[in-house]
Write a structure and sequence with these properties.
alpha/beta; six-stranded parallel β-sheet; two-stranded antiparallel ribbon; globular
Length: 303
């Protein structure tokens, strides 16, 4: 992998939930960048763009937009093919072109390729035991209960052959303000909440680490999540305690949710170990509490 000098960046997917946070961080750090409107699977125009602007780095946070949740990808062939076109074909096109032009490539992926809750059979005691595993970057994915997760696993596998790429895994992103794509907004719209530990990416805490990845031209895979883990039920409890005591929800098991057949796809519940190379990232419970305190002060209340 050649060393690059950071001079100009092109960002794809700049208007999205994650992309807009990246743009703010680039501005904050005084880094020159261009927001592309080209679809990442449009090989001809992406190539023209890279030749014209000659970026040293490309950041991709684009993807096929999900209007509600990952069940969207289970519904029909068109949705499935669009997922593959944007998330897989687009990533491979960008990876190849960046390789050709000696450009460092950062792509935003997902940690929803693992399942921490694992049931094992103990032959000696003739019983099943439940264990919870935390995952490092190099651990093999063990969850393919949705087309979305399968797609992420296969796309990562294809991208892993390149030596100019940093794959950035995030999970269940949260912002310090209300946004339809934020996990907080989604949880507050549900009345039944599960109580399993998960890793979370608070964008305000984690996106600044992308600047470090840029400056160091880091390659490989990184888990960009907050330290520790938290359950969806505890997030809702904190919201009710700090922000809105009128909020109502009930805690149910994952099995109860699955038995109701509400979801077309299974959900990943997992804890990732944050990449040590990124330095310290705030503890998730502390960040959630601070966000809710801000909501309370700014009257940013979702009922």
């Amino acid at each position: 992998m050649l060393a690059f000098k950071l001079t100009m960046i092109i960002i794809y997917g700049s208007t999205g939930f994650i992309g807009s946070h990246i743009v703010k961080e680039l501005i904050k750090n005084g880094i020159s960048f261009l927001c592309s409107k080209t679809r990442i699977h449009d090989y001809t125009n992406v190539r023209k763009e890279l030749l014209l602007y000659k970026p040293t780095n490309v950041i991709n946070s684009a993807g096929f937009a999900t209007p509600n949740n990952i069940d969207f990808y289970e519904e029909n062939v068109e949705n499935k093919s669009n997922l593959i076109l944007a998330n897989t074909a687009g990533n491979i096109i960008l990876a190849n072109l960046c390789k050709e032009f000696y450009i460092h490539y950062i792509t935003i992926m997902s940690g929803c390729i693992y399942n921490s809750k694992q049931t094992e059979y103990n032959a000696k005691h003739m019983q099943y035991t439940t264990k919870f595993k935390e995952f490092k970057e190099k651990d093999e994915p063990n969850f393919s209960g949705s087309l979305y997760s399968k797609n992420r696993i296969l796309t990562e596998e294809l991208l892993s052959v390149y030596d100019n790429i940093c794959i950035v895994r995030i999970r269940m992103p949260i912002s310090s303000f209300m946004h339809p794509k934020s996990l907080i907004n989604k949880l507050l719209s549900y009345r039944e909440i599960t109580n399993l530990p998960n890793s979370i990416t608070v964008l305000d805490d984690c996106i600044p680490k992308i600047i470090d990845i840029l400056k160091e031209n880091k390659i490989g895979t990184v888990n960009l999540v907050n330290s520790g883990s938290i359950t969806n039920a505890y997030i809702c409890y904190l919201y009710k305690k700090i922000v809105n005591r009128r909020h109502r929800f009930s805690v149910v098991s994952l099995e109860e949710i699955e038995n109701k057949n509400i979801d077309k796809a299974k959900r990943s519940n997992c804890v990732l170990i944050p990449s040590t190379s990124l330095g310290e990232i705030p503890y998730i419970t502390t960040s959630i509490i601070n966000i809710f305190k801000k909501f309370k002060l700014t009257k940013d209340i979702y009922c």
